[in-house]
């Protein structure tokens, strides 16, 4: 284990007394697998008002003084009435003065200046407005949904990768596939969010694109990337002790901390990378796809993480192609005008990538990497991995349909 780049399944699971595989159910917990549970301190006051006040006192060399509240002594009710009348009269005078200024500017031919909104609201056609059903739901932010995903599409241009394996003398695509297959198992054992897995793969690829590493450090890089992604995405991320346990103590705590700093520095601490899973859920909502169809698209998208050739693909385009292939497989239609509007991709833009994904499903690169297939063969995921592929003629017929004219 310590000499290999990735942990084998036997090392991760261990042998029982009857030479049977004993699978430890590793759960997310604040405690270490080897020690007693550790207490986590509750959140304290997150404000810094006391610190700012102390800094001001130190700067002025004066002790902090409590703000004295002004006291108003009202002798009689007549004084209070006079004060209220005076304030209302002043407000009336100000209103009259403003009206006079507007009238003077109108008489002179000068139109009064109108305040322009700081942000112009994007007008979405009525037939393409998929967020109108959630109007008023502040948690879903329907009025900003289109702008958010348009921003993510612009941001993903910053994280486009190339074939970095040419710059790694000690690595190859097969080693990367083994690592990603193991990371899928880690995500499933720790019961992490799918966004965590996608982000961890992105962090691994970006770090390998800028740093030359040896194969002995490959599993350490993948584990640390999963740790960083869990801190970014999870409410209760696993601890370093959990990753030490899942790596069979092949590395120590200090190595994890050093690698964590190296990855963050290599990515300039910019780890908010758009991932295909977010776009996939958005486009499935636009298509009104069922949960089974969405799960099938997720299976294709997660299987694509193993392919080194698909690393340069943009997250939004990959998500669009996965959903289109799922729609064709379940015979629920093709690429609609609403999907083109929200995704920005025409059918002709997705055709070559859909064919590449179809070939990936028909002929896997490595038959031994079955973590994703086994995961989506479960009833929880509707056994979508067992759904047969459509015939090639059906696929080509769906991809040859004319594109919708842009609105």
UniProtKB/TrEMBL annotation:
Domain (Cyclin-like) ranges: 181-265, 278-359
MF-aspect GO terms: cyclin-dependent protein serine/threonine kinase regulator activity
Residue ranges constituting the Cyclin C-terminal domain according to the UniProt record: 274-390
Biased composition (Basic and acidic residues): 86-106
Record carries keyword Calcium: no
InterPro entries assigned to the protein according to its UniProt record, in alphabetical order: Cyclin, Cyclin-like_dom, Cyclin-like_sf, Cyclin_A/B-like, Cyclin_C-dom, Cyclin_N
GO biological process: cell division; mitotic cell cycle phase transition
Keyword Cell cycle: yes
Location of the region described as Disordered in the Swiss-Prot/TrEMBL record: 1-46, 85-121
Job of this protein: Essential for the control of the cell cycle at the G2/M (mitosis) transition.
Family: Belongs to the cyclin family. Cyclin AB subfamily.
Protein name (record): Uncharacterized protein
Organism: Pangasianodon hypophthalmus
């Amino acid at each position: 284990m310590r000499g290999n780049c990735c942990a084998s399944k036997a090392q991760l699971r261990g042998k029982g007394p009857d030479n049977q595989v004993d699978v430890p159910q590793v759960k997310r917990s604040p405690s270490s697998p080897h020690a007693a549970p550790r207490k986590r301190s509750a959140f304290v006051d997150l404000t810094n008002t006391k610190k700012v006040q102390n800094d001001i006192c130190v700067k002025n060399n004066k002790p902090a003084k409590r703000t004295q509240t002004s006291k108003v002594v009202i002798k009689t009710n007549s004084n209070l009435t006079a004060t209220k009348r005076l304030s209302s009269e002043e407000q009336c005078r100000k209103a009259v003065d403003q009206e006079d200024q507007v009238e003077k500017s109108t008489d002179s031919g000068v139109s009064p200046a109108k305040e322009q909104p700081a942000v112009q609201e994007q007008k979405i056609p009525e037939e393409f407005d998929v967020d109108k059903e959630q109007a008023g739901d502040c948690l879903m932010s329907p009025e900003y949904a289109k702008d958010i995903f348009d921003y993510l599409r612009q941001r993903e241009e910053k994280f486009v990768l190339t074939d970095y394996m040419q710059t790694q003398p000690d690595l190859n695509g097969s080693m990367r596939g083994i690592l990603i297959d193991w990371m899928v198992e880690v995500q499933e054992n720790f019961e992490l969010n799918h966004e965590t897995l996608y982000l961890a793969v992105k962090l691994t690829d970006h770090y390998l694109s800028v740093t030359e590493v040896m194969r002995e450090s490959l599993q350490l890089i993948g584990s640390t990337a999963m740790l960083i992604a869990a801190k970014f995405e999870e409410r209760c991320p696993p601890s370093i002790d959990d990753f030490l346990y899942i790596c069979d103590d092949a590395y120590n705590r200090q190595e994890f901390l050093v690698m964590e700093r190296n990855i963050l520095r290599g990515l300039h601490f910019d780890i908010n990378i758009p991932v295909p899973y977010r776009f996939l859920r958005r486009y499935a909502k636009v298509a009104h796809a069922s949960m089974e169809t969405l799960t099938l698209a997720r299976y294709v998208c997660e299987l694509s993480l193993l392919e080194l050739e698909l690393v340069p693909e943009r997250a939004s385009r990959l998500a669009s192609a996965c959903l289109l292939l799922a729609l064709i497989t379940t015979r629920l239609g093709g690429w609609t005008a609403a999907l083109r509007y929200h995704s920005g991709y025409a059918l002709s833009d997705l055709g070559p990538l859909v064919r590449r994904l179809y070939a990936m499903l028909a002929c896997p690169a490595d038959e031994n990497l079955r973590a994703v297939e086994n995961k989506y063969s479960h009833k929880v995921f509707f056994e979508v991995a067992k759904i047969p592929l459509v015939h090639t003629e059906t696929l080509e017929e769906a991809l040859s349909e004319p594109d919708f004219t842009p609105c």
